[in-house]
Every structure is written in structure tokens, then in C-alpha cells.
Amino acid sequence: MHADEVDTDVSLVGRLLAAQFPQWADLPIEPVPSAGTDNALYRLGEDMAVRLPRVLRATGQVEKEHRWLPRLAPHLPLAIPVPLAKGTPAEGYPWHWSVYRWLEGETATIERIADPRQAATELAQFVAALQRIDPTGGPPPGPDNSFRGVPLARRDAHTRAAIAALDGMLDTGTVTAVWEAALQAPAWQGPAVWIHGDLLAANLLAQHGRLSAVIDFGCLGLGDPACDLMVAWTYLSAETRDIFRAALPVDDATWARGRGWALSFGLIALPYYQSTNPVLAGIARYAIDEALADHEATA
């Protein structure tokens, strides 16, 4: 998916485990198909997973997740990844890597959710709970979390470049107008709060028809709470979006920025991943369509 991606395979994972965690070296290892873009994932035995950064910019996520996920987990209403061990560079692999507890469940596509209205409420409860956690010492936006949580205006140049790249695929005039409307929303003036930063269907798990876990905290950080509202357009429908909003303490400006975040994410991701990651490209296109339709319905 990336020009600078480092290759990994089962053999490499086996060698890393044998050298650093021999107690797990005899367990079966299987690659896990994933729409994730920053990390390669391998199942280890029945109840663990090995996660290795694919690209340099993702390497800071390892230390961040080991430090913060155990502190956040007790305050959250859905399961999140549990780090078990941190590996070091070796065997030709250049970066730190992680072993996690395996979280059961399937990707929480809407088709796998028995009650989408309940899922919208549970997502809102998760976002609200995350925002309430003490942010002291938390990481600010930066390269390792794709600058999620920065003021929306800082995404302007990249978003407009993506709009230009999609000329012929989208009505660029309409898209530009909706993007500019989002930029007019007042900026966040409150304290930075915890954000997951990447709330997409691919990072939600479901069991027995209900949301069960939120995974992939690589974009975790502190910032504008509007960033996590983008799940309302990347994942939810118009009906469940209203339920999600009603369950959150959110003002009109933050909601408008959230729609802008969803639109910007979709516009930037679509041209980059349209030929390499069809799942993510599909999510990106959905986010664009939902943001445009919602703007038109509420204008």
C-alpha cells in the first residue's frame, strides 16, 4: 500500500518470537487479512496477535499504545487492545513491534449489527467516555497519528489537493463548497481531549450482533473532539447519526467540524487507496457521499 513499506511474513514473525519470546515460539502463526494501513497483523496461537509497523511513521505507535492503552481501558465501555509484550528490532526487521491479546469478533459492518440504533448509542458512549479521561501527559497530534485532532484548517491544503486528484470522479465544485463550509465553523477553544483518531468500520469489532471492541489506536492522541465525530459519516446512516449526536455533549460548531473531518478523510484516502485497499477506499467513498448528502439536507 505504501512505497516505503517494509515487508513482513510468517517466517519473520517466527524468528522474532523464537529470539525474544521463546515461550511462544511453538505456537501457530497465521497472517490476518486486514484493511489496516500502518501495521501488519498475525494471529499467534488462539489468544494473541503480533502487530508490526509497516512504515516508519507508524513506529511511534508501539510505545504510545503500550503506555496508554492500559490506562484508558478501565474507563471505556467497549473492549480495547491489551498489550502483552514489546519486541525489539532484529532479524532484519528495523523497528519495535508488539504482542497483544487477541480480541474475538468480526469487523462490525452494519450488516453484522442487529440494532444499528443501539450501536450508534454505544459508539457515542465510547467517544464521550474517552473524552472524559484525564488528558494530562497525553500525546499531541503529530506524524505518528497522521495529525488527527489538529485544527481542521491545517488539513486544507491536503484536502484541496485530493479534490483536484478526484476531478472527473466527483463534482469537485460541490465538494469544494461543502469543504469550505466546514472550514467556516468556529475552531475548538476548549482543552484538548483524548481521541481515538480513526473510528472507521474497519476498527470496530462485533460479536453476536453488537459492538464489542474498538481496535487500532495508532491515531490515539489529544486534540479537537470533532475528529472522533467523523464516525457519524464514515459508518452511520442519516437515521443513526441523529441518535449518535443526541447521545453526545456536542455543539453545532463541533458537529460541523466533525462532518468536515469525515469529508477530508474520505477525500484524501480515496485517491491514495483506490487501487491498493478496496475496503478503505469504500469507506472513504461512503464518507464523502454521506457528508455531501448531510450538508445538503441541513443547509
Q: Topology of this protein?
A:
Layout: H1 10-20, E1 29-31, E2 39-44, E3 48-53, H2 60-72, E4 83-87, E5 97-101, E6 106-107, H3 116-132, H4 156-165, H5 172-183, E7 193-195, E8 204-207, E9 210-214, E10 221-223, H6 231-234, H7 238-246, H8 252-273, H9 278-298
Antiparallel strand pairs: 1-2, 2-3, 3-5, 4-5, 6-8, 7-10, 8-9
Can you put this structure into words, describing what you see?
There is one protein chain. This protein is α+β, with helices and mostly antiparallel strands and 299 residues long. The chain folds into two domains: 10-101, Phosphorylase Kinase, domain 1; 106-298, Aminoglycoside 3'-phosphotransferase, Chain: A, domain 2 (Alpha-Beta Complex), CATH 3.90.1200. Helices cover 40% and strands 14% of the residues. The chain contains nine helices and ten strands. The chain has helices at residues 10-20, 60-72, 116-132, 156-165, 172-183, 231-234, 238-246, 252-273, 278-298; strands at 29-31, 39-44, 48-53, 83-87, 97-101, 106-107, 193-195, 204-207, 210-214, 221-223. The strands form three sheets. It has a five-stranded antiparallel β-sheet with strand order 1-2-3-5-4, with helices on both faces. The two termini are 37 Å apart. The model has no long low-confidence stretch (mean pLDDT 94).
